[in-house]
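>> received
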Amino acid sequence: MVKLLKLLVYSKKDLAGINIASHLINEINFEKIKIKNFYIYSYKEILLFPVEGSLLDLDNIDINNVEWALFLSKHKSESKRVCLTVHTPGNLCEKNTMGGRPNEVAISNPPLQCNLLKALNTISNEKLNMNIEVTIEATHHGPTDLNFPVTFIEIGSDENAWKNELLGSIVAKAISNIIKFPLEITPGAMGIGGGHYSDKFTKKILEEGALIGHIIPKYAMIEGMHPSMITKCMNKTFGGCSKIYVDWKGTPSYFKNIIRSIENIEIIKI
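>> returned
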């Protein structure tokens, strides 16, 4: 049987990714291996390694037999609020100024994404003496063309947070706790409606164990997203998509009618 690999990838230019990776090396008993002119870290089927450029433009990784990839990254926002986030990459509209192709999304990985979110929430509550936002984000930015599931885990939202050793250790601990054990791959779900940071979908994951992959926010629908992107997001869900959670108040009426017409899917209004 071919061993499927799990990739932990970060950019040499990303302070948060470097921070998380440095703590992962302490969390997991990696073996350091030299390949060509650089080193990677290996533990069983898990590989940890850096890339030269931006993760957002990484539409090819020359490694075979990959089960999924987890990208270790910074999160940037104007608010500069301290947060820990997870999300699936993809461009839901024509705009693709942050990597990937227009109107294309990556393969989402609900079991990995949601288990990481729960681990982040648990560990941050244990280790921090302050409230920190732990949230799932809507689908956004590249890459879009890798042929295996891709998940981002991020530290936000400014340089102080990206370099914060405690935050780096929390994310590394969450990753270590989850990836050392096989994930049960079962049909998951997607979310539609609401804002970029969804309290409703985050709550469903943390409190009810929902497995949500792609999230289509209200702004994407307003900005001209084609309705076919709903089906595309469903089809590009690792393990399959059996449910759609809909923030009903946060969804334009036109798209409510589209959602009602989808066959063989459970629609859950929240």
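>> The longest strand covers residues 66-76.
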